[in-house]
Write a structure and sequence with these properties.
With 421 residues, the chain is mainly α. It has helices at 9-12, 19-49, 54-82, 85-109, 114-142, 149-178, 181-190, 192-200, 216-229, 231-247, 249-252, 254-261, 266-291, 297-317, 323-351, 357-386, 388-405.
């Protein structure tokens, strides 16, 4: 008998009754839109600065932003479990504003270089390594009803896909209208939403924070033991990492693909492709959150991999200048990616115990950041040496292999929640 992938529908109605969660998710939407707008425009700016080696440099800039997380995320998770999460978010938001304003000032002044972008991307990565696990783990603190943690985490992820539609969709038109620096300025302003939201939340239900009488190193080891001792979490990490390398990395180099495979202004083409992918991801998020309980998690993962992999293979064979077909394929790819991603995220967040949430999230992000660092670098190298179609064929084939192997992986049934009696 099929087991639902999310909470009992009878309890799902309480999600949007959570006042804190409404404020938090609203602020995250504003912040995510600013972040992805900046990331999209940054890739376009790199292509302008180094047009002859653009695939390499786009991959390197993206990878540097995730390098600190690929090294430090598990240790950041330990700190998040021991510290005041709202205070961490205030500090990281201020640092995010500083990084965005630095990019804006350098761009407006005409002094910006690719090396400066690399340095600021790396510095931003050090902020992200603490900010990302805190944003994820904070959900468990602010909700008043435990059954809303899983759906709240999925809604949190869904907002990223709203931003994936808004960010790339606005990147090209904004650059053409007012230039690159304006996008960085907008991102700096977007961090203010989270600062306002924290002041509006009711956090009186949280007990006074007391440091556990355990050395941080022992906490780190306990987090590792729990994460890799739980079959569902372990498998969720494995699948998320491999799917991220093959199924998400192409979105990082999408501006390069737009320039190489299509005629016309690549900035505008990228806006069509990136916006369509984000719109598909948004629809996928809505479907998983509202209807996901009717499907097993493993079938969402398999179906998502098959859909994305098939779209990438078709895009590679479609030939140049078939923009309408490419936009449709990007929409379906975004839809499929969210089927897989949200099914895995919901399972992992549901299985993580409250006191260990920060550590589990930190370890999950360690592998996520690793895939986000490795994937774009490989993508850039493949496109530079073999072209975009070859890269798309490799990515699509990898996803189809993941789909074929998923049903036989040990612990696959652990991704499903236990039935409520």
């Amino acid at each position: 008998m099929d087991i639902p992938v999310s909470v009992n529908p009878a309890t799902r109605t309480g999600l949007w009754d959570e006042r804190n969660l409404r404020w938090y998710l609203g602020s995250q939407l504003v912040s995510f839109c600013g972040t992805l707008l900046q990331s999209s425009v940054l890739s376009l700016l790199v292509i302008k600065l180094v047009p002859h080696n653009a695939p390499y440099w786009v991959g390197i800039v993206w990878a540097l932003g995730f390098l600190p997380g690929a090294v430090l995320a598990p240790f950041a998770g330990v700190y998040v479990d021991r510290a005041d999460k709202s205070l961490i978010l205030k500090y990281t938001s201020v640092l995010g504003v500083i990084q965005a304003l630095a990019l804006a000032l350098l761009t407006f002044s005409g002094l910006i270089t690719v090396w400066q972008i690399c340095l600021l991307s790396l510095l931003g990565g050090f902020v992200t390594v603490l900010d990302a696990p805190t944003r994820n783990a904070f959900i468990k603190d602010i909700v008043l009803h435990g059954h809303n943690v899983g759906p709240g985490s999925q809604a949190f992820s869904a907002l990223w896909n709203v931003a994936q539609f808004v960010g790339p969709g606005l990147a090209g038109p904004l650059v053409l209208a007012v230039g690159y620096g304006s996008a960085f300025l907008i991102n700096g302003l977007s961090f203010g939403g989270l600062l306002v939201a924290i002041t509006k939340m009711h956090l009186g239900h949280l007990p006074p924070r007391e440091l556990e009488p355990v050395h941080p190193w022992r906490q780190f080891r306990s987090g590792l033991a729990y994460t890799f001792g739980e079959p569902g979490i372990r498998l969720g990490i494995l699948l998320s990492t491999t799917i991220g390398i093959f199924g998400f990395s192409f979105t990082v180099v999408l501006p390069v693909i737009a320039k190489e495979m299509f005629s016309g202004d690549y900035k505008q083409v990228y806006s069509y492709l990136g916006g369509s992918h984000g719109l598909g991801g948004l629809l996928g998020s809505i479907l998983v959150i509202s209807l996901g309980g009717r499907f097993r998690a493993k079938w969402l993962v398999i179906g998502g991999c098959v859909l994305v992999g098939s779209c990438l293979l078709l895009l590679a064979q479609a030939g140049t200048d078939n923009l309408l077909l490419a936009v449709a394929l990007m929409f379906l790819a975004g839809l499929g990616y969210m089927f897989s991603f949200l099914a895995l995220r919901g399972a992992v967040m549901r299985l993580a115990r409250g006191p260990l949430m920060g550590r589990v999230v930190g370890i999950v992000l360690f592998f996520f950041f690793g895939s986000m660092m490795l994937g774009p670098m490989l993508a850039g190298a493949l496109i530079e040496n073999f072209g975009s179609p070859t890269f798309l064929i490799i990515s699509g084939g990898g996803l189809l292999l993941i789909a074929m192997s998923t049903p036989i992986l040990p612990g696959i049934n652990q991704l499903e929640p236990k039935q409520e009696k």
